[in-house]
Amino acid sequence: MPSLRSAAAARRRILGYARGRTVHLGSSLSVVDVLAEVLRRVHAADPGAPRSPVVLSKGHAVWALYALLAEHGHPRYTDAHGLPGHPADGFPGIDVATGSLGHGLSIAAGMAEAFRLDAQERPVYVVLGDGELDEGSVWEAAMFAAHRGLRHLVAVVDVNGLQQEGPTREVLDTSPLDRKWEAFGWRVVPADGHDADDLASALDLAEQADAPAVVLARTVKGKGVPFMEHDLAWHTATLDEARYADAVRGLEP
Amino acid sequence: MRTAVAGTLAELGDERPDLVVLCADARALALRFAARHPERSIDVGIAEANLMGVAAGIARTGRPVVVCGMAPFLVRRAAEQLRVDVAGPGLDVTVLGVGGGVAYGTLGASHHAPEDLGAVAAMPGTRVYSPADVHDARWAVRDAVGGAGPAYVRLGPRENHLVHAGDERFGPDGLLDGTLPADVLVVAAGATVAPALAAARAARERGVAVAVLRLVQVWPFPAAAVRAAAHGATRVVTVEEHDTGSGIGAQTALTLCGSWSGETAFLGIGHGPAPVAEQEGLFRHHRIDEAAVLDAVMLERGSM
Q1: Where do the Transketolase N-terminal domain residues begin and end (chain A) (predicted)?
Q2: Would the CB atoms of B60 and A97 count as touching at under 8 Å?
Q3: Is the terminal CB of chain B with fewer CB neighbours within 10 Å at N or C?
Q4: Do B85 and A103 count as a contact with CB atoms less than 8 A apart?
């Protein structure tokens, strides 16, 4: 799957979901390139092997996941009707129900423990938000994964710098993220979260690391829609037809 | 109770090669399992939220998981992970909570969990057990791990007095002590079974026909068994080491409402301050001890 092209199509879908219902637009648009690359790797793996799980810990960005799954051919996600606002069990392509922030890294660590017991080498991917890192349970899980040497655990943080009520540095400053993760025993790989090649290289390094690894993906909230970029007003939104037309204009194929 | 259950857990580890046991720097229950199956025993440190999330992750791969810890920290600090990550998806995770109720006595309110059974019962698809001694504790742990979906077992931190015979056939409907129909039915579970049985003996000596329904599985609540046992009684007394508003008293009231009429007394733990005391002293303070149950039983006879 050519991830950038797919991500552009996914962005159009995300905006389409917001016609008539409220959607977490800003985060879905910031994380969609990251998720596109993660899903590309998962689906490119040996089809005979069990698929690697993807835990979207920042569950409010599920619209990016729905859109990419639609691009992968899941018809359930062609429109937003009946889709929950956070990942739920029982939907195709959704590996773990999430939504309460700070849960996903622990769940992914548990999966990595189980795969090690089963002598399976497959990676477990977990995608977190930078605002989500406020949750203490994230750091409980980070310590645990390093202590247990879960080297097939691959985290990606969508570092868009904005959380619900403002810049992360103003709400609760979690910087410096690289040194924090390193101090917790993780290998840290920085990446441009909107560059497919850079993300692919970063995830290659993360998967080959000798310890749990985190890709710190620098992103832009609202990426791809100029009037939404860096603007918290689009954290959640419903689009009327005029706004939708404005938003989607720059994303024509 | 802890020693007996530690043995049961080790046996289950032998029988179930996929079973994983997790704890959070409180290993007493898991020690024997860990000695036999070190690769399937994980201590996450003092981090209960992560503990429950890791349990969910392991269980999502198809392995059954047992989580051991102190009840107050499992059911309160890790409540969201237990509710959302374990109970919501119906995963095979059994939580063994040591010291629910007021069993930790003088350690104080932070270490008491008088709401644990009701809190977990309110989570979707859970089975909840409150055994009274080593016999029903062994059964409860085996039944919890052997069944499908999430379960919670409240365990005592010390060796409780034996109240059951070793060869009794435990089940979801509990066990009846005495004969039916009885004038007074007492419904008890866990550590209040002993005072309930003692009070019933004393009441019988005074000529009152009393039956005691000893519950081990408290959720799903055995409504049909309670309704059948209450049939013909003029008074029903419930006694529990639990918040009165969300435990077996409340469930008994819901069960009997509209289908039975008579006098009721619901003995349990309220929300007021309690003195610094061991479990027995706290039972006296909360009026869930033998004397309080006897009072509640005899009141019907007008003799107290």
Answers
A1: 23-244
A2: no
A3: C
A4: yes
